[in-house]
Amino acid sequence: MSRSDGPRASLGRALEDAVSEAELAHAWRGIAARRTNRRARRVLAIAALALATAAIVMIVIARPDPSPRAPQQRTRERAMSSSARGPIAHADGAPLSGVLRGVGITLDEGSSVEPDALGDLEVLANDEHEVALHLRAGGARFSITPGGARRWRVEGGGVSVEVVGTVFSVRRDGARVHVAVERGVVIVRGAAVPDGVQRLGAGASIDVGPPPTPPDVEPAPAPRETPRRAARTEAQPPDDEPARWLDDADHARREGRVDDAITALGAIVERHPRSPEAPVAAFTRARLLTSLGREAEARDSYARAIELGLPPALDAAAREALAR
Question: Which one, 38, 93, 131, 136, has the greatest CB density within 10 A?
């Protein structure tokens, strides 16, 4: 046996005998299969993740909106989309036009106009770009849907109010205009507006124009001046009737002309002593004389009144005055 036939040669033959070509090929196929399986599992995992994500998105899209306003909002959006292609219309589909008086309206895109009892509005323009109204008298409240396709404009009294989406009120009183904003922002323009233009936010208001003219009121009649009536004397005998003398005495007393009143009462007593007015005239004359401190003349007049026949109550008063 040569050296080549030693242990090394024997080991090579043992290896060749132990691992055949077929077995080696089978081992490589196993390795390749394991690699393929790992790749397939990775692809399947990615596909499963994508499917789960898609399912979640579909669930979110299909889930109904829990907000109770969602149906109305969607209806409003559809109406706004359709109405933007032409004039704005009433809720029943009739185009907004003509004159609005005293009755509130709701429009197809959700806005509303509420004139007050004196409100008088005329539609100036209505198309896909703008709605313009003229407030001719009274007032109105406007609730304009935000995000609409049209610009709103309200004219009145030399003032122009421009909005897109807000709630505001405009009122006219002659040439004076009051604008108040509840929500949103409006632009007020006009020659009488400070600086020609003002921006008003929620809670703000402005008055433009001269103060309203007060209604015509007839001036109160001047106090009627009572003509001074002179007491009748011997030199003034016309209408010599007790009632006329008594009337003269009454006017003189109210005007503070006590002496004239005493003269008129004395004329009744002297000229018409038998008249029913004479005793009372004498009694009244006596009291006026007392008020002037003319006691002696007063006593004579009391005595004359008793003589002419006073009513019992006055007779007692006259006697009491004489007894003092």
Answer: 131
C-alpha torsion angle, residues 283, 285, 289, 294 (rounded to 10): -80
Q: What percent of the chain has pLDDT over 90?
A: 25
CB atoms within 10 A of CB 229: 16
Q: What φ, ψ does residue 140 adopt, rounded to 5°?
A: -160, 150
* Contact of 113 with 121, CB cutoff 8 Å: yes
Q: In the prediction, which pLDDT does 234 show?
A: 44
Task: Give which of 163, 118, 120, 116 is closest to 141, Cα–Cα.
Answer: 116
Burial code (b: 16+ CB inside 10 Å, e: under 16) for 116-126 equals eeebbbebeeb
| Token representation of residue 12 | 């090579």
Of 250, 281, 253, the closest CA to residue 267 belongs to 281
Cβ–Cβ under 8 Å, residues 156 and 182: no
Q: Does the 86-208 domain belong in CATH 2.60.120.1440?
A: yes
How would you classify the pairing of strands 130-137 and 151-156? parallel
**Domain 242-323 CATH class label:** mainly alpha
Contact 232, 264 (CB under 8 A): yes
For the entire predicted model, the pTM comes to: 0.44
For the chain, the domains span 86-208, 242-323
Using CA atoms, how far apart are residues 30 and 41, in angstroms rounded to an integer?
17
Residue 250: burial class (beta carbons within 10 Å; 0-12, 13-18, 19+):
middle
Condensed to tens digits (0 to 9), the pLDDT of residues 195-229 reads: 999 999 999 999 998 876 665 555 556 555 444 44
- DSSP for 140-155 reads EEEEPPTT-SSEEEEE
Judged by DSSP in three states, 70 sits in helix
DSSP strands (E only) in the chain: 99-101, 105-106, 112-115, 120-126, 130-137, 139-143, 151-156, 159-163, 167-173, 176-183, 186-190, 197-200, 205-208
Which pLDDT score, from 0 to 100, does residue 104 have?
86
Select from 313, 261, 264 the least CA-distant residue to 292.
Answer: 261
